[in-house]
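Objective 1.3, modelling of assemblies. Example input:
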Amino acid sequence: MGGVSINAGIVGGAGYTGGELIRLLLNHPQVQLSFVHSNSQAGKPVHAVHTDLLGDTDLYFTDTLDQDVDVLFLCVGHGAAKTFMAEQQLPVSIKIIDLSQDFRWNESSKSDAVSAYDRVFVYGLPELQRQAIVKAENIANPGCFATAIQLALLPLAKQNLLAAEIHVSGITGSTGAGQSLSPTSHYSWRSGNLSNYKVLSHQHLHEIRRTLQGLQEQALPDINFVPYRGPFTRGILCTSYTRFYQTLEQAQELYTTYYASHPFVHISTDTPDLKQVVNTNKCILHLQKEGEYLVITSIIDNLLKGASGQAVQNMNLLFGMPEQLGLQLKATSF
Amino acid sequence: MGGVSINAGIVGGAGYTGGELIRLLLNHPQVQLSFVHSNSQAGKPVHAVHTDLLGDTDLYFTDTLDQDVDVLFLCVGHGAAKTFMAEQQLPVSIKIIDLSQDFRWNESSKSDAVSAYDRVFVYGLPELQRQAIVKAENIANPGCFATAIQLALLPLAKQNLLAAEIHVSGITGSTGAGQSLSPTSHYSWRSGNLSNYKVLSHQHLHEIRRTLQGLQEQALPDINFVPYRGPFTRGILCTSYTRFYQTLEQAQELYTTYYASHPFVHISTDTPDLKQVVNTNKCILHLQKEGEYLVITSIIDNLLKGASGQAVQNMNLLFGMPEQLGLQLKATSF
Amino acid sequence: MGGVSINAGIVGGAGYTGGELIRLLLNHPQVQLSFVHSNSQAGKPVHAVHTDLLGDTDLYFTDTLDQDVDVLFLCVGHGAAKTFMAEQQLPVSIKIIDLSQDFRWNESSKSDAVSAYDRVFVYGLPELQRQAIVKAENIANPGCFATAIQLALLPLAKQNLLAAEIHVSGITGSTGAGQSLSPTSHYSWRSGNLSNYKVLSHQHLHEIRRTLQGLQEQALPDINFVPYRGPFTRGILCTSYTRFYQTLEQAQELYTTYYASHPFVHISTDTPDLKQVVNTNKCILHLQKEGEYLVITSIIDNLLKGASGQAVQNMNLLFGMPEQLGLQLKATSF
Amino acid sequence: MGGVSINAGIVGGAGYTGGELIRLLLNHPQVQLSFVHSNSQAGKPVHAVHTDLLGDTDLYFTDTLDQDVDVLFLCVGHGAAKTFMAEQQLPVSIKIIDLSQDFRWNESSKSDAVSAYDRVFVYGLPELQRQAIVKAENIANPGCFATAIQLALLPLAKQNLLAAEIHVSGITGSTGAGQSLSPTSHYSWRSGNLSNYKVLSHQHLHEIRRTLQGLQEQALPDINFVPYRGPFTRGILCTSYTRFYQTLEQAQELYTTYYASHPFVHISTDTPDLKQVVNTNKCILHLQKEGEYLVITSIIDNLLKGASGQAVQNMNLLFGMPEQLGLQLKATSF
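Predicted structure (tokens):
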């Protein structure tokens, strides 16, 4: 592989997903990070906000947009991405990878891609539609819980096997809620604490249902999802179960086949624990058969496979680079 | 109230539930803690093992049983309680409160109480059968997850309303697994980590099903339970849901009525978080209606309402003392 | 002991120390908590803010002061206590226990007690001057680090043995910084994290120096204090060392004698760990001799012995009640 | 840079430092990891023990030594490295990098390097003696606390400025104690807990004193070190202070100059926090002047710059590769 070939910019670079993107792009062998935009931090060194980057970059946050980039990542939060696109006159030659939910498909989407501001946004879950992504011009990056749950269920939907009600519980770390200060982000509150929220009504169900219904012919059953806030910073673990009338071996065959060509998804024969994937772009799946139920455990790092890592994976695909480039990360493990 | 009226002994006092019992009984205004038995720690001061008790007690662990007590708590672990009862010739005048699962009822129990070693053990969930406990001679103290889940479902079973499949997810702290060292109890592993275990096959389902089936006439539906190990030390939070064709207000009325006379159960109109009950004997319940589902969140401290606190509550009832005596504990809160 | 004898009020009851006071006073056998004042939360139930109190109290926060109390606790933060006293015309018959630093003595204090607003505030460290507290009318409650460090050094100062430079490092939990939201209180930042702050310049050194200099005749040497923020919620652990030319046994004798009549201070022969005192009003000390140095480890719960617990201890003394009344708390242990 | 040029083996690969080495070497562009030796885990897949490596390697632990390697890392623990070297007849062409303390210099070392088993071990602190390492054949990798404290003091020793007593406090995460199970490694104990240990007597003082005395001409003053166990998994933060009669600017100039050519050491003008370096090979230093004292804060990841990362840094130097190769790691940040 030759020298740097892509110029990238980040909008909303002072937040958690923005910071992860900077960390990834600074080490990506084929990317030059041209600028990091932030309204709130403009003028400060990037390492003054993302303090682990001290010594890694001399970039400063800027409040002006440099249009001389090949790809622009939007890390501006839900709603703000639409506002940004409406206000800016970006040449279509700049590919957009948006990490908000603004351009993701949802259950009421009429077509496969979301059109807005003279652009077409492809839902960026590579394990669902890598070929569409390779040909795409703009990407709507999936949600974190949405990624963990879809990866747990894709092989079943593909085989038309989602017939009975689906039950999911999942636990997310604090970085999933971003860096804004709130009572439930206070250390004194959250340390050693737990709560559920948006029980049976989490907004990611929209994109999940759209994906799964798009894959299977029969009507999708209800998906009941109980999300929890847990006392840890990074990662999502989901347990999904639904009735499945084949054997465990058949399920394993089905999942192994489905994910054979997808480098970030691994099927574990042992029960996984969250820290196997923390600080990596992996998703680890585990299958179990209990009575009539197939139980699927899925784990991801919410900031990587659930956000910025998947965004880089999508960028790699958009620009014809190897899918894993810059994403073979050392796990934290502990 | 007058002076000390009860002499108590603890067998297996070096473990987590034993330690909690000692903490409770030392502060209980009507109990004299006569001895703490431990095979492994005999001869050591109690505060050498339960180091927070420095200055609170001069008791030493002993390996001989003093039979001059009114009540004996068994904190010896599953299986060991039976062995202990088989080996000892305890006069029936000593009431036994066993914290293991050895004498709890389960789905195949023919009658309401478990008979063993010339004794009858009553299942000690006061919010289910306080009157039976008041008249009992021996108690089988419920399991921790079993307590949290039963308290979430009792009012529905009472009204014959458990008609459709029940789904429960629950997360427990590390003290639930006791003090033995294992890879999943290592700090480096568990800190910031999560895993599920015994998915859809947790052993507490037996006592839960027995209780609920005993309350309602129609056949009990399946209960699907996904337990998690969480990165915290104390507490259990469970989310249960099942189809319920009445309104939220009706559900609240039903629960409020059911628990009106039970001092440790509180219905919260706000979503609860685990630390509301940590270091207390409370159970807080929260009700929510989502579509056809009634969602019940229940939280307890696994070592108190889920073990030693409930054991003291049972002792209070057995001996005609106020149910809350010695159990109005300051929450840790943080 | 008879019925309720004291009426108490709390100003600034919505914060951390205010919450702890409420928890303590609700369970105190000789106190009636008359009102809890809070400008920010007036009108809300107390349990809406201190959610662990659900079921324990029907009090509402109020924004009017009821002057019909025997004692008023000020939990309003540094600076605000002075403002409050200046603005209110409180009868001197109401005893004030202030938890801020506003009325604590410091190195430049001319006399033993601080006079302000027609009142005299006695520095409320019972292990230093219980007799002065018993006779006091108003109390300035010591700081948390100040309590841990003073209890480590009092016996040496008393014997005129603080001759050489003193070195202290100490680590505090997040509740020490109160409930206001800040970047260093964010869970994502603080979990698993550490930092030092105010190195060699912590404000508590003023009251510490004043206390120690007041005890010993010779000039007090420098005290170098390195404070840390640790990833936990409750507790302070300090390690102090200074040259000491006697034996360990002599040191132990000296400390044991000094604290013989003080029920909350315990000398441990084993190295202590922080959780021995969490959720209690204890201070545990440990002594060690290394070369010429005497090393003193001291641990307290910053919200109890370091704040609200000590305030109740002072109240007990002010009103002639047993020093430990309402303060024999179950440790959290885990 | 061309293809793979070095074959590496690891002995003791099932522990924490062994696992980190595997993670690093699998991603190192110039290394082929030939084998991972483990007596306890031989025959199992490497990812069965280091479960985050699922999908990254098909290696199995082996109990036979393959001598066809260029470098062998010993991760076998203190004492065991000597035993291993005594029992094996390894050709001297295999360079040894030992992570234990067995071949580190200490205060009583007569010469600069430690000779044993026909080999000469050079103390592998690149920021002290990179040129000696480049020419070395075997490396004794420094201890974790030793690295953090030496990096804090090297520039002062170099300038002969360590004249007055040095005071250090430092806090380490749980991985510093390895994976063996012990009461202080139990999650229920360590979560939210703190303790000091080996106060003023930590074994790393030997190598620290040897290094510093080797640099400066005048006699080294006493170093007083208070180590703590903290409730987190990775990282070390140390605060060191000693009298320094120049200005802060002069100190900064001195440190900046000393570390100008050392890519992993960064001087921060802001107070650092531990997570800036977690999962990286960096050391961040911060300087502060308080009265006569210069205060130096130093942070490292104990498993990387404090162990396996430094071992790879040493390997890079031994084999003439760029010092940072394979060590530009994404920080965990949260």
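The CA atoms of residues 117 and 317 of chain A lie 23 Å apart.
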